[in-house]
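#struct-pred

JT: dropping the chains for the assembly here, can someone run the whole complex?
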Amino acid sequence: MAALAPDDIRDAYLELTRRRRLYGGLLLVIFVAMMAAGFRLAESRNAGGFVDGLPMLLAFPSEVLAEAWQKRANLPGLLAEHLPSLVETLNIAAVSTLMGGLMAMGLALLSTRGLARWPRLTGLFRRLMDALRAVPEIVVALVLIYILGGGPVPAVIAISLHTAGALGKLFSEVAENADLKPVEGLASVGAGWSQQVGLGVLPQVAPNWLSYALMRFEINLRASAILGFVGAGGIGYDLKLAMQWGMGRYDEVVAIFALLFVAIVAIDRLSDHARSRLVRG
Amino acid sequence: MTAATLSPALADTVLTRFARRRLAAFAVPLAILAYLAYAAMAFDLAGLAGRARMDNAAVLLSDFWQHKTHVTRDNRSGALRVAIDGEAKGTYPPDRLPGWIATQGDATRIDLGQGHVVTYDAQGARYEVPGYGLIDIRPQDGGLHLTAPQPLPDWINASDSRVSVTTPAGRFAYTRSKVETFRYQPGWALFFFTLDSPFHYMSWPEIAASALWGPRLDSGLPNVAAMARDFWTNAMWRHGDVIWAMFETVLMAFLGTFGAALAALPLGFMAARNMMPFGALRFGLRRVFDFIRGVDGLIWTIVLARAFGPGPMTGALAILLTDTGSFGKMFSEALENIDEKQVEGIRSTGAGAVQRARFGVIPQVTPVLLSQVLYFLESNTRGATVIGAIVGGGIGLLLTQAIQTQKDWEDVAYYMVLIVLMVMAMDSFSGWLRRRLIKG
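RK: done, full complex below.
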């Protein structure tokens, strides 16, 4: 390699930096232009414009809060009245996290290299998880509501299926990093597949799996509130009914908002705390 | 170490722990089972069996993959109408009926396949069922007169005013005002071209030939353009609207996610312990993030829909607002976990706060932040479907509309396939982007 003069090196470096900065800047400009164009397009297809709507943004919340403040005496009663719906929403989230988590455990173990019961079928189980993950909950829920009628069961099935796909992927990523030596040891003493997995792998992956499942529980709580809004029971459904009524029932809307808010924040906090303990200790 | 050196206290501790573990191994599954049993009661699983509409399920499943053609004769005027799914936009022009329907004067012969033949004529209607015999229906002094091999099987339902027959080949119903035959055929009818398009009546090779060198069917347009127009404006499947709706959904996810990322970046800096000297502001921002996340997308969506009306911009803003909370929290945590040495190095050259952030912090956190943003882009593509159903925009709106009409299940199946493909495409796109931007 011919020796380069320090000046040449510096010039080349500065040239490179300048060019990189130019490209980066160009990309950024293109990106921002795309965002702006997309926003204009979205605005043109919207019922109301952005600028016209901005002053209205606080109108609805303040209207709701004003009415609720007038009828604040009703609030404790309304909170108690809607508590069962909140429990139902929590139950939907918990049951679907449990069932989805159990399905995900099976799918993850069946699709992890080195652990799979049928190594040739790992691809199949992976595609199955992809498909489960790709279908939005609302699609399954709406179809099931048509067949099973409104209520919590369609929501549970829909969220469970989605959870199985989403957690299955995370679980199998964890299981892939598990140490396989205990499995070999168990195999050498004649343990069957379920014993190898149960005694060799599960203890290793349990903290991480639990942590992911808790995170999923937070997500599922929100999902079950949303599915209630399209007719699948729980507090979302109450909210929809109260909203449809409109003026005159805003105290109820506020009570439901408050319940949902407190539940979400409390669950987030609890699961944050539990997760940090699980992963650290 | 030998067993002798093991102190009795240690052995006791170990044994107690083992006993506790063993107890937990039984208690945890039992607790789960007990909870599921409670949930089954709370959700009224037993009552569900009574409420479930299995006939709806059958309709839905058969509609998913097959279509039915209604062949209807008005018994008073004698007019014959052949329509797919009984819809006006699926009505065949009278001179271009499908090959399995033959008309001759007053008589119409409908070949349902597998030997099943229905004939309408001036006297009434006849249905020939192979292996059973001839079902003959004639209107007589205000009622219907049915002649069929006795005893009547349970798939024939006859009264004085209505006779209906259900066979594997199709369904047939005679009332005083009209006679109707439904033929079920696999496939989605009129998916490419509707009956008013000349291309519907061509086979695939003919379509290819007419696209490449055939004479113009519409003097103003080349055939390829006419095909594209007929496909795009297909009244049955509304491909144009559907593709716009998909685009709107992706647009909502894109604008929402990246808008939130842009908004959360400065906020994240302000909420990170090592970047922000004023504790009060940091604390306030953290609580704002918590509030935004706690209120949840559902409620933001409702509030925003009140201000901006239904549409994709409302959906995009709802995603933007919700994700600003999540990103703000995640970004500030990522910023707190950076390696301070690089910042120190930049500081030693006399760099100001902005320069330290630009050269010391951003290069470190970009991969982390970017991969979080891209994960959110994936999940928001799914979420935009749901938000679209609530705010009334995108494919979510079309899907809920199709489900609520409770008859266009083939549309529902079509949208489901499209949504899954869209989500998978976004998954692989963001995976590709992640690999390009982070590793390369």
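JT: nice. Chain B has a mean pLDDT of 86. The first helix of chain B runs from residue 8 to 42.
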